Amino acid sequence: MVAANDFGKRVEDRLNARSFKWFGFGSPLQQSANTPQNMDPGDEAVEVAGKLRVKLVSEEVGVDADMIALWPDSEHPTHAIICNEIDGTEAGAAASVQRVELDSGTVSDMVFGLVSCDPVRRTPWGTVIVGEESGPDGRVYEIFDPLTIANVQVDHETGDSSDPTRVVARTALGQLSYEGIVILPNGITYYGDELRPSTGKAGGGIYKFVPATPHDGGPISNLTESPYVAGSVYVLRLGLRSGGTDYGHGTNSGAGKWIGPLSTESDLASSATVVGGYTGYYRPEDMELDPIAWVDGKVRACWANTGNDSQEFWGEVLCVNDESTTDTSFNTGTRPVVTPFLIGNPSLRMPDNLAFQPHTGILYINMDATTSAGNPEFTNDDVWACLPDGEDTDTLSDGCVRVMTLKDGEAEFTGIEFLADGDKFLIHLQHRTQDGRATPNTTDELLVSGIKVRK
Fold first, then answer.
1. CATH superfamily of 3-449
2. Contacts (Cβ under 8 Å, ≥6 apart) of 70
C-alpha cells in the first residue's frame, strides 16, 4: 500500500517507461549486474538499454586506460587519444599516453614516464593536454602534433621531456592530483584536485587558470604560442557573508570568490592554504562544460565528488556558474556560484567520469563504486543518464536512468566521450581480466551507438 502511494516511485517508473522520449533509447536497465568476473569480449561484457548497440573498437588499449580525447575533432574523429592510469616510471611500464586508430583499433605508444595519467583534453588551439593524478606532484603536459608523437620519455620528477618541442610540462598551471579539466576557447581553464579530506584538512580544491596572453582563435604553429606558457592560478573559496569570513567546513555551495593568484612554486593545495584557505571537496573527479549553458553565453562547469560508498557517502555532482561581474573585488572578473545537481544514492553511487550529451544537456555518469568482486553487498558499476534541471524550483537533475551495467566485477567504466552528433560515445572497460589476452589486464575500448538525439 505504501508503494502504491509513493509519488517519487511513480515518477521514477514513468521516466523509465518513457525513456525513448526523454533520453532517446529504449527500456533502461532496472538493476546492476552482480557477477564478480566475466571473461567475455568487451562488447559482450556489458548490458545496455534498449535500442543501443555496442561495438568493440579495440581490446589492446593500455593497462588502465582512463579518459579519452577525440582527434582531430569530435565531428569526424580518426583517433582516440587516451591516458593510462599507471606508474609509468617503473621499468618496463606501458605507455602513459596512447592513441587508438578508430577504424582499425590499432594502438600506438606516444609518451612514457607519467605517474597515473588520467585526464586528457583536446585544446581549442589544436594541441592535447594530459595530466597526472599523482598527488601533490602531478603535472600537466601539452602535446603538439599528436599523430606524429612516438615513444617520447618524460621525467616525472623534473618534468623534462625527450622532445621538448612537442611535449612540455605546463608549470604555469601548478602541481596537484589532476582529474577533471575544462578549457575555454581563450585558454581560461578550470580543474580539480583529486584529494580527499584528512584529519580536519580540506579535501580537493577547484582551481582556475587565467592565461597571461589569452588565445584569440585558430590553431597554434608551435608550443611557444600556447596560452599555457604563462598565467595566474586562483582557487575557489565559497562564503561571502561578513566580508567573506564564513568559509570553511559547512560552506560547500553558494557564492564565493576566486582567491589568488597562487604561487606555483609548491603544490597548489599548500599555496591555497597559505593565502588563507579554500573550499575543499571529497575527491573531485571529472569536470565537464555544460554545452547548453555555453551556447547561452554562460560558463557552467559540473564535476563529480566521488565520495566513499563503504561509509555510506554516496558522492555527488556539483556545478559552478562563473558569472561575470563588474565588482572589482572579485578576482578574474567573475563571481562563482556552486549549486548541487545530483545527490548520490545506494544505486547511483561514487560518480567518476562525466560527459554531457551534445545538443541535450543530458549528463552521462560513470560509477567507480565498490563492486561485488570486493564486497558482495554492492553490485557492479553502471553508467547513468541524468536529465538537465528543468523549470521546477530546484537545481537538481529532473531524473536519472541506468544506461549500461558491467558484467565484469573486476573492471570499471572509464573515459566516456561523446561524438559531436550526440548519438554515440566511446567508453573504456578498464583492467579487464578475460582469457586469451596477449597482455593480461588490458582495457577494452567500446563504441556505444543508437541514441536518438532530441534537438
1. TolB, C-terminal domain (2.120.10.30)
2. 77, 79, 80, 81, 122, 417, 419, 426
Task: Note the pLDDT tens digit of each residue in 236-292.
Answer: 999 999 989 898 888 999 999 999 999 999 999 999 999 999 999 999 999 999 999
Q: Which has the closest alpha carbon to 410: 439, 373, 375, 379?
A: 373
State how far the Cα of 329 lies from the Cα of 243, in Å rounded to an integer: 11
Neighbours of 241 (CB within 10 A): 11
Band of residue 194 on the pLDDT scale cut at 50, 70, 90: very high
Give 313's strand partners.
308
> Which three-class secondary structure state does DSSP give residue 434?
coil
Q: Write out the H or E segment, with its range, that includes residue 15.
A: helix 7-17
In degrees and rounded to multiples of 5, residue 31 shows phi and psi of -155, 160
List pLDDT tens digits, range 73-126: 999 999 999 999 999 999 889 999 999 999 999 999 999 999 999 999 999 999
Average pLDDT of the segment spanning 294-320: 96
Closest C-alpha among 40, 165, 27, 143 to residue 83: 143
- Is the Cβ–Cβ distance between 415 and 438 less than 8 Å? no
8 A C-beta contact, residue 130 and residue 143: yes
All cell numbers assigned to 107: 594502438
pTM over 0.85: yes
CA–CA separation, 279 and 299 (whole Å): 20
- Helices H / strands E in the chain, number of each: 5, 27
Query: Do residues 418 and 31 lie in contact, with contact meaning Cβ atoms separated by under 8 Å?
Result: no
- Dihedral, CA atoms, 262, 266, 272, 275, nearest 10 degrees? -70
In one-letter notation, the amino acid at residue 190 is Y
